[in-house]
Write a structure and sequence with these properties.
ten-stranded mixed sheet, Na+/H+ antiporter like fold, 3 domains, 756 residues, alpha/beta, Rossmann fold
């Protein structure tokens, strides 16, 4: 009744409003003024008028900019995802996305769409937005630097970082002698050209190196800290040199640039002697979410914008000011974590891809249209790689690192990534380098960044760490259980199950593994992220006095890393959680289910060969299917239903092939005194006397802990067994039950689905 009354009232109000507005408009038209033009009456004119309006809307600058942003984000994330899956840094995919959308590809194959999406008049808006993204990114890079890391090994860091800059810098200046007559833009002096080539070949990508150190689990080692120290010193030196070089280029001579250098020095003194102490006090007071108000955030953003503005006015580019502002931010870890979270998503996901595409629009690979140009491109690459690799590797050897570590330092410092593109775009904007050299240097940036992973892999393969080999031999003598988890609460339950299997074994270890997306983890907030992730599990380990190993590892492709660790870590069992897909039961899910077979070659092959159906079911999504297929050690898939203890367990066995479940039954009984009920649903024990003998032996060793029941109907049997804590079930039985919609699935407690 109330609902009908509300609807009636709503209709009356709307109707009265329409009538009143119509009457007022009619009376208003009598006041005079131009009337709207009347259409001629032809249907074609109406349609033409409609098309003209929407054509104007589609080509409006704001509409074009929004479409550009949407396209750029989609293509950049797609290319980044592809690179992630094949083991390359995501930044490579984003750079490749920019080249794909630029004149090197899209303008050649779809010129009409390229002209519509990136008209010349729109590039100014795109450039300014990309510059904002770069300013925010450089601010984050500055915040990620920790000047404290330089204190312990300052002298070593200076030797390695400066050598890794000087050697390629000298090589680039020498190479410029030959490149200048061929590729230098008109009106540019040799000094400007050579200095920019030198700094472009000397730069290294601190953010990419930090991510690789994290992903290779080196961040806790002394060697990992050493690499971070070298990279930080390299970054600070390179950006300082870049500021001086920009001042020289803009001033036109060394003498004129001295005024700029002096003003920049005064600016730095003010930033680090006056502004930084004030920001440190402000950051200490406002280092949590509740106290970090909008007014406080405005102060820090004000410092960022003002710093960028000052360096732009001084003539050393706004990006230098953004970097300095980031370094000057409070060193408080909690503050930096909170502030980076506020900035990073917008900067890296929304705005930074605009810079990649703008760089791609400038990069014309087609300009390198003859073998001679590609020869020069190869020479540039050779000088850049050898200069950085030999310079940093030799210096690392001189400061006391062994040969293996020195080679790895050379591979790390050869990474250029996004930092190279930043320098190249500055040089291009200043008119110091032309389009041909710009294209060659972009190719060099891509190749040197791609090289890092394979180079490190070769060094680790042919020069293995002897300490790691000894640790692996020791691990092979233990019974090891791996528990990778995402949700800490579910992880606690999985660790509880693992502990029940090995509680009394003296040579057993449980390793809890949590991986986080590397782009979401920073070096300075890693300890806090690790503590939060493992807190429930460590509490559980302390409660039951469980020896526990914990591994926190950032990763680009989490699923792939879990598979690698399970297969190569000498584990005897891996227990991972499963859950329902977010798409299940929706129209989008059905669409994704079809398209995933098209865009995923592995899924398409499985569909064609019939293998995909092996792992179908409501909890077996693509991720679980991949794990079941690729993990080679015994695997347990855990379904959480509120497990508190493992005092009672039920184990249905439907075939002789599932007799491997008896191994885990024995472990539960011997290690945790668990009461186990075996449900023989296929007359397995009657047909296999050797299994029956094993059961009798266990019953004699642990009286009252094992019960064998013949079960013709699992639903009825489970109805008669209330209060069970856990079910162990073979993957074949579970898959068959799901496909046939068996009723007994609704009666299960928490389940561990085991695959031998």
């Amino acid at each position: 009744m109330a609902r009908s009354r509300n609807i009636l009232f709503y209709l009356l109000v709307i109707s009265a409003a329409v009538v009143l507005v119509f009457m007022v408009v009619q009376q208003g038209n009598l006041l005079g003024g131009p009337l709207p033009p009347k259409p001629s009456g032809a249907v074609v004119d109406h349609w033409k008028h409609f098309k003209d309006i929407y054509h104007e809307n589609l080509t409006h600058p704001l509409a074009i900019l929004l479409l550009q942003i949407l396209t750029i984000i989609a293509v950049a994330r797609t290319f980044g995802f592809i690179c992630q899956k094949i083991g390359l840094p995501t930044v490579i995919g984003e750079i490749a996305a920019g080249i794909f959308l630029g004149p090197s590809f899209m303008a050649q194959h779809w010129p009409e769409y390229s002209a519509f999406l990136f008209p010349p008049a729109s590039l100014g808006n795109l450039q300014f937005l990309s510059q904002i993204g770069l300013i925010l990114f450089m601010f984050v890079v500055g915040m990620e630097l920790d000047l404290n890391v330089l204190r312990d090994r300052a002298s070593d860091a200076l030797v390695v970082s400066h050598t890794s800059i000087v050697v390629p810098f000298v090589g680039a200046v020498a190479l410029s002698y030959f490149l200048f007559p061929l590729f230098a833009p008109a009106g540019i002096t040799f000094l400007s050209f050579a200095l920019f080539m030198g700094i472009a070949m000397s730069i290294a990508a601190f953010p990419v190196m930090a991510r690789i150190v994290q992903e290779r689990n080196l961040h806790r080692t002394h060697f990992g800290s050493t690499i971070i120290t070298f990279a930080a010193a390299d970054d600070i030196t390179a950006w300082s040199l870049l500021a001086v070089i920009i001042a020289i280029v803009k001033a036109g001579s060394l003498v004129s640039s001295l005024f700029t250098v002096v003003m920049v020095f005064v600016y730095l003194v003010v930033m680090f002697r006056v502004v930084r102490p004030f920001l440190r006090k402000l950051g200490d007071i406002h280092s949590d979410r509740d106290s970090l108000s909008k007014a406080v955030v405005a102060v820090f953003f004000g410092v960022l914008i003002l710093s960028a503005y000052i360096t732009e006015v001084l003539g050393v580019h706004a990006l230098i000011g953004a970097f300095v502002a980031g370094v000057a931010m409070p060193p408080n870890i909690r503050f930096r974590t909170l502030f980076i979270e506020k900035v990073e998503d917008v900067a890296l996901v929304l705005l930074l891809p605009l810079f990649f595409v703008f760089t791609g629009l400038r990069t014309e690979i087609g300009l390198l249209n003859n073998p001679g140009l590609w020869k020069w491109c190869g020479i540039i690459l050779l000088v850049a790689v050898l200069g950085k690799f030999i310079g940093s590797g030799l210096a690392a050897r001189m400061v006391g690192l062994n040969l293996r570590q020195s080679l790895m330092v050379g591979a790390f410092m050869n990474t250029r990534g996004l930092m190279e593109l930043v320098v190249l775009n500055i040089g291009y904007d200043l008119g110091v380098i032309g389009p041909e050299i710009f294209a060659m240097m972009v190719v060099m940036a891509l190749v040197t960044t791609v090289m890092t992973g394979p180079l490190l892999g070769l060094i680790e393969r042919y020069m293995p760490d002897p300490e790691a080999a000894r640790e692996r031999q020791e691990l092979l003598r233990r019974f090891r259980v791996l528990v990778p988890f995402g949700d800490p609460v579910r992880g606690r339950s999985m660790v509880r199950v693992a502990h029940a299997l090995v509680r009394k074994q003296t040579n057993a270890t449980i390793t809890a593994l949590h991986m986080a997306p590397s782009e979401a983890v920073h070096r300075f907030n890693m300890a806090e992220r690790e503590r939060e992730s493992f807190e429930p599990i460590r509490r559980e380990a302390k409660r039951v006095q469980m020896p526990l190993e914990t591994v926190f590892k950032p990763a680009v492709d989490i699923d792939k890393e879990v598979v690698v660790m399970a297969n190569e870590g000498a584990f005897d069992l891996a227990i991972m959680g499963v859950g329902r897909s977010i798409y299940e039961g929706t129209l989008l899910g059905r669409i994704v289910g079809v398209t995933s077979r098209i865009i995923n070659p592995e899924r398409l092959l499985e569909t064609l060969t019939g293998k995909e159906r092996l792992f179908d079911g409501p909890v077996f999504d693509d991720r679980v299917r991949t794990m079941v297929r690729d993990i080679k050690v015994p695997l347990g898939l855990y379904v959480e239903k509120g497990l508190d203890q493992v005092a009672k367990c039920v184990v249905p066995i439907s075939s002789h092939g599932e007799s491997y479940l008896l191994t885990y039954v024995q472990k539960l009984i011997l290690n945790s005194d668990t009461e186990v009920v075996l449900l023989d649903s296929g007359a397995v024990f009657e047909q296999n006397p050797e299994l029956l003998t094993l059961i009798r032996t266990v019953e004699q060793e642990s009286p009252g802990k094992l019960v064998l029941r013949r079960s013709a109907d699992l639903f009825t049997s489970l109805m008669q067994l209330p209060g069970q804590d856990l079910m162990l079930v073979g993957i074949d039985t579970w898959t068959k039950a799901v496909q046939q919609g068996e009723q007994w699935l609704s009666l299960t407690p928490s389940v561990l689905i085991l695959r031998h």
